């Protein structure tokens, strides 16, 4: 799914657009015991409760594609009888009315989800009557030609509220506040099937993780049978940096790294209005290095370095391997951060036999919020 398709589904979680037919829930304690369950037609919920659930569902489809939201394909074996995809199809087609299927689903999560505190599993069934679109992109609700039937699951931590004082309206006094168990925003979730090209795609699902560095690969493999899992966002950046260092070797200097950063950010800027995130495979990374001034002799063994560091079929999302807001230079004792467009103000020089970072400055310099004098040319400080 691309960001436009995700946004279209998120827009449905309002009272006016709601197409949720049923909601089920299961509260699990830290010892993996089921404490209570929810089983309701969604429209029968109190209005205040429904709004809080809408917020949870929106957050389950929030974040950046390729970082918080991952498109995962089912292996062929999982699409056969007894596979993970077949089970999820049964669950969707039951519209969450089959208690045996629901309890089997809960048990799968309880057995495979690695979390040692209380949490709340929420799953909904939705039947979205997809409107047609005119040539100018406007939705035509009287021209729908398909219904997108799907399930959305959210896994939310449940924590005890902080102790404190509160106002008791009945007694008209300030007193110790009763602590409650509070359902927090989701940390994991998934949508099945995907809404690709605005149609149902039963061969894939969209996985949500609040923390991009904690995909829980074992959970993904056990729950969905997904063996080919993209590298986590932080791992992508670490792998890309290792690839660059191995490729450049002793020629890995400040100027080339700055050029790579600028070239990558320029491509991201050109790509910002596209619905799909900018993805770089082996050949795209090679072209990035060529355009950034990496010498040809350093690219002779690039394919070998790429396969060793990342894997031949691995690709990187550009948004995961660069920071468009900050350019950072670090030494053991000093960290310098500049705006990417101002990276040319920093250079390396040898001064009195020592490697130095030199930062060009104008007439305005502050140190800890205090304006300080600046030396202009060979003159005394002003």
What structural keywords apply?
382 residues; alpha+beta; 29% helix
Written description of the protein model:
The protein is of the alpha+beta class and 382 residues long. It contains 10 helices and 22 strands. Helix 6 (233-248) runs antiparallel to helix 9 (302-309). The mean pLDDT is 88.
Q: What is the strand content?
A: 25-35%
Helix content, binned percent: 25-40%
Total strands: 22
Main sheet overview:
8 strands, antiparallel
Query: What gap, in angstroms, lies between the N and C termini?
Result: 58 Å
Radius of gyration: 26 Å
User: Which structural class do you get from the secondary structure elements?
Assistant: alpha+beta
Average pLDDT, all residues: 88
- Spans of at least 5 consecutive residues whose pLDDT stays below 50 are none
Helix count, DSSP H or I runs of 4 or more residues:
10
Q: Any idea what the shape is?
A: globular
């Amino acid at each position: 799914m691309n960001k436009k398709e995700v946004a279209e589904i998120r827009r449905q979680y309002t009272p006016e657009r709601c197409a949720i037919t049923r909601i089920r829930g299961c509260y699990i304690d830290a010892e993996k015991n089921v404490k209570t369950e929810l089983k309701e037609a969604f429209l029968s919920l109190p209005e205040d409760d429904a709004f809080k659930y809408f917020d949870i569902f929106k957050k389950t489809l929030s974040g950046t594609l390729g970082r918080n939201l991952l498109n995962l394909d089912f292996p062929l074996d999982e699409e056969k009888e007894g596979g993970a995809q077949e089970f999820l199809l049964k669950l969707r087609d039951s519209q969450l009315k089959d208690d045996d299927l629901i309890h089997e689903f809960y048990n799968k999560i309880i057995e495979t989800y690695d979390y040692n505190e209380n949490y709340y599993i929420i799953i909904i069934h939705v039947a979205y009557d997809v409107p047609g679109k005119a040539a100018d992109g406007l939705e035509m609700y009287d021209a729908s030609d398909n219904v997108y039937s799907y399930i959305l699951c959210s896994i939310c931590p449940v924590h005890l509220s902080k102790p404190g004082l509160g106002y008791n309206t009945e007694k008209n006094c300030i007193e110790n506040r009763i602590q409650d168990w509070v359902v927090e925003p989701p940390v994991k979730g998934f949508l099945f099937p995907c809404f690709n090209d605005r149609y149902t795609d039963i061969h894939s699902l969209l996985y949500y993780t609040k923390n991009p560095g904690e995909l829980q690969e074992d959970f993904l493999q056990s729950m969905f049978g997904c063996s080919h899992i993209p590298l986590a966002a932080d791992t992508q950046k670490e792998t890309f940096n290792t690839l660059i260092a191995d490729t450049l070797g002793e020629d890995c200097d400040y100027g080339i790294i700055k050029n790579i950063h600028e070239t990558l950010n320029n491509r991201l800027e050109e790509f910002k209005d596209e619905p799909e995130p900018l993805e770089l495979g082996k050949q795209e990374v090679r072209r990035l290095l060529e355009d950034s001034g990496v010498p040809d002799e350093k690219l002779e063994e690039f394919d070998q370095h790429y396969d060793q560091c990342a894997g031949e079929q691995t690709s990187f999302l550009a948004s995961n391997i660069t920071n468009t807001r900050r350019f950072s230079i670090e030494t053991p004792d000093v960290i310098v951060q500049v705006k990417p467009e101002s990276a040319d103000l920093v250079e390396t020089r040898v001064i009195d036999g020592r490697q130095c970072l030199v930062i060009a400055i104008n007439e305005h310099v502050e140190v800890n919020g205090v304006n300080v004098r600046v030396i202009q040319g060979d003159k005394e400080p002003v």
